[in-house]
């Protein structure tokens, strides 16, 4: 820290560089590294390859939901139905493969399409019926969870075909499949949001809907695509968890929407749109993952974990606001 | 600017440290038992955790215990389970949230030769067999027997020749625990006092208010109702309110299951007639004791049923029943 004081230019340049090239705030990366260092010092089990994979595996479903949240939020929207749609998708996939006996590939498709369908309904209602996104997706949260319980009769649907299980339990080169799928999804999503026209339009709508409209962006259509994408990603997360535990669990993803939004915000996404990056969100998700994993290794009660994550959320936004104030001043 | 930022970053670290130092700061050693509960924010699981602690202390066992924020946090529990394995425990005692959410973790444990205990019998034997997971033993209350004990108490109070309508309030529809209790009650009642007829067996969803309205509805149709069996104490207490509101407190015998503190209070007040108490404290304690035996190479039964105890005003006032000390 003292070297920064001696040469303030270096710190500022590093900050600027990370924002421009990687689309992340350097501070969040530092918090992540500091947390990891603290955990490594406190627990002898933290620094190991298997524990590293463990953290990624534990972050995979939440991480994919956080990607969905980033897309929707950075366009000025909100999707509160993520966790419920994830649960519904897993149940739908398990239902068609176990109870109807369709091939495993269709099971995967059923998960993602179920999610996409729920997302499409959200998008239609938000853009055509003009019901606020908060209300629409809050309603979908209840509808999707209820439907999952109805389809499954309130119990897990057990016994998926082995090919499907591979997607959740397989370990190519020792790396769990959900981690492979999660990382691949994150890379693609990052490139889409950071480097494509689709991504630029997303951020432009979040920044100022009026300006985006004036610039000729078809805002409503774009919004519908975003909600559908969000639902499809929730479906993917549902499929991964379903394959991990070999069953469709109607309670899967309970309260995950808030955790996913938290990860996106810690990662630097602006809750009111206009700013967001998937890489930042991934760092946010990993901060939470490392915190949880470390506290679990230290056998700290889950009550304290919730407090810690709440505190990190407020701290992250505080640092963010502080930076913005500083930039606007200079 | 730089200094102020450094302060912010420093306080983030201090915060993380402060949070961690509030927990049990002991680092893991080899030879620990890992105990994974659903949640500790409910008296039943709290008592079981207490039993684990006391059992471990008596047997000189080192253990660490973890739980998740709610009894529906299926994936968080799986993640905690995986993390617990990183600490290389010698035994894994788990109370799974449902019959499948811990499967990948249990498989890994089995591959590493760590014995698995099914605490409170939440795992489905058929699923375990399909997954090729062999557990050391399962331990918990026998819910069918608990229901049967309820029926025995009722018949001891009303006599085998008694006649009249009886209401059964089940748990959440589809929930196996509630079904077993209701089934055990109905079966034994049919054997002991065929004159007592179950006129309705309805799901009360573990909900006090719902149980109260079911009771109201049935009392309208059968004002001569003689008994109510509810699959847990919360619902039994709901039934108590409805029955007393109808002024039929002396006519209807009400029985619950669990033996929780609210129920004990109601029994002492002479409102609820009986509760078939589970002894979660004993479940936790015996689980630890039996794992020690397994690790020492002794054989233990695959299914360990911890007894349940019928609590009545007499039992509570006499206080001579030896199992009473485990009612927390």
> How many structural domains of chain A?
1
List the uncertain runs of chain A: none
Span between termini of chain A: 22 Å
CATH class label of chain A = Mainly Alpha
Round the Cα radius of gyration of chain B to an integer and report it: 23 Å
How are the strands of the largest sheet of chain A arranged? Answer: 1-2
Give me the secondary-structure category of chain B: alpha/beta
Largest sheet of chain A: 2 strands, antiparallel
Overall mean pLDDT of chain A: 91
Residue stretches of chain B low in confidence (pLDDT < 50, at least 5 long) are 1-10, 12-29
Overview of the structural elements:
The complex is a heterodimer of chains A (330) and B (328). Chain A contains 15 helices and two strands. Chain A is globular and about 65 Å long. The relative contact order of chain A is 0.19. Chain A has 330 residues and is mostly helical. Chain B has 328 residues and is α/β, with parallel strands linked by helices. Chain B has two domains: 28-135 and 280-307, Rossmann fold, CATH 3.40.50; 143-277, Rossmann fold. A six-stranded parallel beta sheet of chain B has the order 2-1-3-4-5-11, with helices on both faces. In chain B, helix 2 packs parallel to helix 11, helix 3 runs parallel beside helix 4 (103-111) and helix 6 (143-158) packs parallel to helix 7 (176-192).
List the main descriptive attributes of the protein structure presented here.
heterodimer, A: 330 residues, mainly alpha, ABC transporter involved in vitamin B12 uptake, BtuC, 15 helices, B: 328 residues, alpha/beta, Rossmann fold, six-stranded parallel sheet, six-stranded mixed sheet, 12 helices, 12 strands, disordered N terminus
